[in-house]
Design a protein that fits this description.
P1 and P2 exist as dimers at the large ribosomal subunit. The chain has 113 residues and is mostly helical. It is built from six helices and no strands. α2 crosses α3.
Amino acid sequence: MSTAELACAYSALILADDGVEITADKIQSLITAANVADIEPIWTSLFAKALEGKDVKEILTNVGSGGGAAPAAAAAAGGAAAGGDAAAEAPKEEAKEEEKEESDEDMGFGLFD
């Protein structure tokens, strides 16, 4: 990362930590206060537009979640911990769905036909 990118990223993190709306002007004022030289205004506006309407703290806490796999696993674990039968039935339903799919061999098609 360049100095400009790092300065903007750190400024955005500071603003998010303080609960302040992230705007290009606020990022620029933090960079100026930190005496970081030669930051082009395009960087501050890019970071402000990229983070507009997003919760930075939420983004940081879900960095390694893998796109929703963790919440599904947590929900399954929560159901199993509660002792419900629904958690035991979920894997059976998935197995049935996999069995329903037909392969090429079932339809009479093969690699050497």
